[in-house]
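Internal tracking record. Fields below are filled automatically when a chain is submitted to the structure queue. Please do not edit lines marked as system-generated. If the sequence contains nonstandard residues, flag them in the REMARKS field before resubmitting.
Queue: standard
Priority: normal
Entity type: single polypeptide chain
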Amino acid sequence: MVEIGYAALLTAFIVAAYASVASFAGARAKIPELWLSARHGVIATFALTSTASGALLYALLSRDFGVRYVAEYTNSSLSVPYTVAAFWAGQAGSLLLLTWLLSLFGVAVLIQSRERNRALLPYVLTVTMSVEAFFLGIITFSANPFDRLPAAVADGAGLNPLLEDPGMLYHPPILYAGYVAFTVPFAFAVAALISGRLGGAWIRSSRRWTLFAWLTLGLGNLFGAQWAYTVLGWGGYWGWDPVENAGFMPWLVATAFLHSAKAQDRYGVLKVWNMILIIATFSLCLFGTLISRTGIVSSVHAFASGSLGPLLLTLLAMVIVPSLLLLWIRLPLLRGEHKIASMVSREATVSYTNVVFVGAAFAVFCGTVFPLVSEGLGGSKTTVDAAFYNRVAGPLLLTAVALMGVCPLIGWRRISLADVCRHGALPAVASVATAGLLTGFGMKPYYAVITFAVLAFTGTALLVEFYRGVFARCRHRDENPLLALPRLIWADKPRYGGHIVHVGIVVMALGIAGSQLFGTSVGATLSPGESIQVSDYNLTYDGLSSYSNGDKDVVAATLHVARDGDSLGSMAAAKTFTSTRPDQPLSNVAIRVRPDEDLFVILNRWSEDGVTASFTVLVNPLMMWLWIGGSIVLMGAAVAFWPEAGAERRFAVAEVVPMPEMRPNRT
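SYSTEM-GENERATED OUTPUT FOLLOWS
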C-alpha cells in the first residue's frame, strides 16, 4: 500500500501538471480534444490523490511503523479517532490533505460549471491544477508521507498530548478547507483577467465559493480559539500568535471582498477593488501557509522548520507577480459601469468598510512580520505583544461593526439626509441611552462605554431592518409575524442571511469586549483550607488527588467555590501526564460557565510533598456570548449560502457562453 500510495502521488503530480497545460492550450488553440483530456485529468487527479490518501490512512491504521510518518505521529495505544487525526498532525500528511481537498474542489467546479462559465472554465482549471501540481511536487519530492525508515521500530512516538483532544478531529480539516477553497474564487478572477470577460460573471460564479471559504476559515479560527481556551490552559482564546494571525488576515480581506463583490454585482462599481481584494486574499492564504510550515516566525502552532521556505516563497511570487501584471494590462477594461453617486450611499459605505478591513489586515500583517524586519535590520528578532494589536486592530474592527449598523439604514445610489435621520433615529437613541446608562452605573474606562454604545447602535439597526421587513409582510400579505419572519428570510436569503451573520458578529463582539475589557486574573499558592478571592467568588483549596486513566496519570486539585456566601459546589483543575511524553503535561482546566461570566481555574504546579499547590483563577465576563455569536454566524452563512433555485436557473441560462470555435477533429 505504501508503494501504491507513492506511485499515486507521483502520477497525480504528472497528471495535474498535464491538466493545467492542456486546459490552457486547449482553450487558446481551440482544440476540443485537448480540453476534454484536461477535464479527464482533473478527475484523474482527484482519484489519484484519493488513492494516496487511502494508502496513508491504511498505513496509519495498520500501525506500519516502518513508515517514518506513522512512527512519528502514532503508537500502538493511540485510539482509532486520533490515529485518523494523525493524518493531518504532521507536515507531510497535512499537505496531502490540502492537495486532496483542492482536487476535490476542482472536480466540484467542473461539475458545477458543466452548463455555464464555458469561456472561463478552462482558465479556472488551469489555475487550480497549477496550484495542485505545485503542492503535489512538494509532497512527492520534498515532504513524502510514504518515506520508509531504514528499519521498522517496535512502537511509534505517539501524538503530542495537546493534540489528543476532540478539537483535533475537526479544527485542522476545517481550517485547511478554508485556506484551499479560496483557490477557486482566485482562479475565477485570474480567468476573467486572462479571457477579458470582466463583467459580473466571475463574481457571481465565485460568490458561493467565496462564502464557503470565508465561512470555513472563520469556523476554523473560532474552533481554534475554543480549543485554546479549554485545552492550552493559559486562560485566553486568542493570543495574536503568528499562525493565528495567518488565518485571520485572509478572513478579514475576504470579508471586504464579499461586501465589495455585492456592490459590483448590483451596480458595476469597485471592479478594480475586487480584483485586488481576491488576489490579496489568496496571497495571504499562501503567506499563512508559509508561516505555519517553515517556522520563519516563532509560533507555538507552527510545524518544525524545514526546506519548504524557498519553495513556498517561489509559489507566492508566482501568484502575486503575474496576477498584478494581468491586472495592470486589463485596467482599461475594469472601469466601473457607474460611479458612486453619493458619499452617503450603501456602495460608498461598502468602500469605507473595505478600507477598514484592509487596514486591520495590514496592521496585523505588520505586527506579524515585524520580527523578521527587526532581525534583518538589527540582527535580533523583536516580537510585537498583544497590546499592539489591541490598540491598532481593535478600534478598526469596532469601526467595521459600526459600519455594519450604518449600511442597513441607507440605500443604494442616493439617499437624502432626511431619510438617514429617520432610519437612524432609533439606533442612535439606543446607542446614546446605552452610553448614558453605563456611565451612570460607573462603567470605566471611556472606551468600554463607546464599545458597548456602538454594539447597541448596530444591534438595534439590524433588528429594525428585520422589523421593517416583517411589518411590511404583515401589512401587505396579512401574515402572522411568527410566519412572516422565516418567510421574509427565505424570500431573500443572501440579504437576510447576511443580516443574521452581522447579528452574530455583534453578539461575538459583545463576548470579546466583556472578556477583554473586564476580565480579572489572580494567582496564588494555597495550602489545604486556604482561600483565594476573585471578584465575587471565594475558592477554598481542599487538596490534591492522583489517579490513573489508562496510560495516563492525572493529578487533580479540588476547590470549593462560593459566591456572595452561597455555595456553588466544587471545581477540579488537573494536569495529565502521558507515558510517551511525561515531560509535556496537559492542563485540564476547570471552567464554570454562566451567561454573565466564566470562572476559569488553572492548576500550575504543586510542592513535592503534595501539600501546597499554585493556581491561576480568572473571571471572564460574557464569554458565553462569543460562542453563541459564532453559532449565529454559522446559521446566517448557511442561509446566505443556500441556493436559490429560480435565480440559479436564470443565471445558468444567462451565463451559458459557447466555447470559442474549435478546429474539427481531422481523423
